[in-house]
Amino acid sequence: MERIRKYCPYQSIFKLNNYQNLMLLGILYAILSAVVFAISNVIMKHMTFKINKLSLMIIRSMFTLITIIPLLFFADFILPSFKESIIIVAIGLIGAVAYYYFIKAIELSNVSVISTITRTSTIITILLSIFFLDEKLNILQYIAILCVLFGIIFLTIDIRKLKSEQLLQEKKALFISLFVTFLWGIMYFLMKYSVNAVGSIYTAFYLEFFVFFFIALLLFKKNNLILFKQSLVTVLNQKKLLIIIFFIGLLTTLGSLFYSFAISLIYVSIAITLINMAPLVTAIVARIFINERLSTKQVIGIIITIVGVIIISL
Question: What is the pLDDT, as a whole number, of residue 140?
Answer without folding.
Answer: 77
